[in-house]
Write a structure and sequence with these properties.
Chain lengths: 438, 258
Amino acid sequence: MIARVAWLLARPGRAGAAALALPVTAFAIVTTLLLGVLGGAQSFWTWTDDIGITYQALAVIALVLLVVPLLSLGGAAARLSARRRDDRLATLRLLGATPAAVGTLAVLEAAVLALAGALVGVVGYFALVPALGLIVFRGEPLGAAGVLLGWEALVAVPVGVVLLAVVSAVVGLRRVVISPLGVRTKDEAPRMHWLRFAIGAAVVALGFLLMSALQVAGSMLVVFAFLAAAFGGSLAVLNLVGPWVLRLVASGQAKRAKTPARLIAARLVLESPKAAWRQVSGVAMTSFMAVFAGTGVAVLGAIGASPDAEMADLVVDLRTGIIITVVGSFLMVACSVGVNQAAGVLDRADLYRSLGMLGMPVETMDAARRRAVLSPLRITAIGSAVIAAVVMLPITGIALIVDPLSLLVIAAVLAAGIGVVWLGLVATRPVLERAAVA
Amino acid sequence: MGTFVLEATGLVKSFGQTHALAGVDLAVRTGEAVAIMGASGSGKTTLLHCLAGIIRPDAGQVTFRSGAGGVDVTGLGERERSRLRREAFGFVFQAGLLIPELTASENVALALMLNGMPRPRAEEYARGWLAALGLAGMEDRRIGQLSGGQAQRVAIARAQVTGASVVFADEPTGALDSATSAEVMSALLHSTVGQGRTLVLVTHDAQVAERCGRIVDVRDGRIVGERAGAGAAPAAGPAAGPAAGPSAGPSAGPEVAA
Ligand SMILES: Nc1ncnc2c1ncn2[C@@H]1O[C@H](COP(=O)(O)OP(=O)(O)OP(=O)(O)O)[C@@H](O)[C@H]1O
Ligand SMILES: [Mg+2]
């Protein structure tokens, strides 16, 4: 059965090349990033001194921060391939394919796309090796030979990417009802309790106290532990409070909206604040991390102002690591926004086509969908930067945070995050244009 | 009733090897209701889309006449046709195809806002039309909280609120049971021909077609027959509608809209 209908799915769909190219590009970028970080970090494991362990721990954190967005990317890619084939589902059903069979095909397709992307990603990694070799850690460039991975990693990473894509595709597809009628008929918009906000505020206050207590703590280890606790706690708060805040803001926007695009955008967010949050939470975490870690490094720099060369190196290297992780996770977020948006457009292709018939300009539809991502993104990015600053305030003091240089760095990080998401949105405009044409 | 609001001559449209329209001539008078009937795949939707300027025929011409004179719809560019559809035409589709996240009144008001009307006024008109179509008290419900028939009436309000001079409906009752379908047809006829406006309707349902003034049969992309329907006499319109009265729509006709 699967074999018989597979050819039907293999033909190019109405959605066109963009819907295929997007997930492949996304998986390629993910693979290149993972290999690049692994390659860069592998030399850390050749260091056997005390501080080497610190480097290894930090590399693991960076990898984890990069793998999390990868999980949602696989789900989005599977959703996209299911949607891309929506126009052929009726035919498939006539041929006797069950929804389960269609789901299997979507998962298979996600796996194939992930594999193709992963292979491109390996090529991308090799192209990147000379540049990676220039990165300086502990006062010395890593060198091209130092960042070149063995064949084990070159096989394991693509396989891992494909496996993750399959797992998240299976999980993601469970949430999607595959139906030829793309219009959802949920009856009530979800409500969220203010208690979320109360709990969030309490945890931030606790973090603030924790950091205040930090000033009396002496040892570096205690400082690290406190930092980690405050970091994890605040991140959890962000996840708890984020959707609630988005809903609150969007409901105000829906009331005040004066243009069709603004009205639709606000209602899209209100429909599912959690989904809106999920799309932008990657940027939230990254900008949170950038502020948190950035100021943290500055503090460590101040503590370690003693003429300790190793300590000075660590501070510089932490900064390098943070920049790499920030850039990497922004790229991940851009990929997942692009793939999610393409799937979202195809989800409602019928609706977009009908709006086009009514005479709604494509620009209006595009503006609505862009705004539905960018508006939560702005709130999220700024909100998480502010929370990070509040938690860090006790140890850094106001002077460091409002220091022009840190403000500039924070602003640059936020701008870059919003910029890459914007790019992800622009990349999916062709999908919308195709869907909206009668 | 002399003037033709829409006049199509020699319409031809092919999709690859399929000849969806093979030379269609059709003239629609102002204020009449025309039903287009025919088997599946006979070219009804394609004809409707050509008349409404959604797609361009390979050959032939469609002329739309309004107070401001005639427009060659087929000669207009993509942007102008989109604007014409927005300002002068209304559409009702089989599945409603309303924006599910918006409330009933927002869906209707959107049509006016697209033409540049400020939101408070647009929502006021929208509420008036929804009330006139029997949906008072449901204005703030989201589309998912309405029944199929109610959603279809929201779509009718959206098609009419701009004061559109022609409403195109592609199987507007296709997804409804026969009782609901009769109600929706009444609402549709009242808000169009009842106001001196024109309705062009595609349907499979003979009972629905009978309620129009004229029935046109299509087969293999040609018009093969034409007869009078029972519903030739215009009925009384929804009196409470703010846009009641021919071409006294809230945007006061397509020419004035921003
Ligand atoms: N976009 C398109 N691409 C290719 N073929 C098309 C397209 N639109 C219509 N056709 C073909 O043109 C013919 C007429 O289609 P049309 O949609 O006008 O039929 P219809 O009378 O509305 O049918 P139904 O009652 O099933 O809606 C059909 O054979 C159809 O397959
Ligand atoms: Mg049709």
